[in-house]
Amino acid sequence: MHHANHFYGHAHVLARYAGLGDGHPPRINGYVQHGWNIGDGLAPGHPYADRTPSLLWSEQTRRRAWSVGRRNVVVIGAPFVYLLAMRPEEPPESEREGTIWYPFHGWEGQHVRGDHRELIARIRDTEPGPVTVCLYWHEFRMRRVRRLYENAGFRVICHGYRGHWWKDTDPYFLDKQLTELRRHRRVASNRLTSAIFYGIAAGCEPAVYGDPMVLANEDPTFGGTARVRRQWPELHGEAVDLPTAVATARAELGTDHRCTPAELRELLGWANLQEERVDH
Length: 280
Known about the structure:
By secondary structure, the chain is an alpha/beta fold. About 35% of the residues lie in helices and about 10% in strands.
C-alpha cells in the first residue's frame, strides 16, 4: 500500500466502512486521494506507478486527471464521506457555538511563511463567538506559533498526527475532526482546504478570509491560490451563502459517489477479505 493511503487514517476509515474492523487495514490496490486539491488528485511530485488506479474524490478531479493523461481513474468519494455515513449526527449534547479556525499549514518538507499576529487580529475582528484554533501537528509542536494563539485567548487543539511512511498514523484523526466540527457553528481558514469542505459537510457555516500565507517552494503547476480564488469565489469571504457552499462541498467531496461496502471492497482489492476479517 502506498504510504499516503494511511494519511489521516483514510485507509482505516475505509476498512471500517467496508466491514473489515478496526485492525490494520489491508493493502489498497491504488492511490487514494489524500486531500482536496485542484489538480489530478495526487500531490505534485507524487511518485506514481503506471497503470495503478487513482481513487479520487470527485468527478471534477477525475476529469482533470483524464486531461493530464491519467486513464485508470475511479471516483469513490472522500474518506470523510464514509465516516459521515458511519457516524450520522446524533442530538447534540449542547448547542453549537463559536468558530473552529484552521490556519494554513506546512508539512515535513515545506514550511509556511506568514504573519500569525496579523491573522490573529483579523480573527478577533471577525468571529462573533469563542474561537478554537486547530493547528496542524507541524505548527502545533512549534511552541512559538502555538503560544501566539494561546496568548490571544483562543482554545488551541490538534487533531493528531497524520502519519508518514506507515508510521504513527492516528487512525481516528478524522473522527476527532468530525467531533470538533460538530461542536462549532462556523468553520474558517485563510485558504480553501479539505477542512472547510469537511466543516460544511458536518453542518458548519464556512468562511475563508485573511492572508493565505506562502508555502515554501509551492508548486504552481495547477494555478495555485490565485486559481482557487478565481474558480471558487462563492466560498471566499467572512460570510458565504450556505446553500451554495453545501452544494459545492457535496460535489467536491464526491458525496453522491459513495460506494456500498461491497462495491468498496471490490474497488480497493478487498473483495476476498470480508469473511476472513469482518469478525475480528
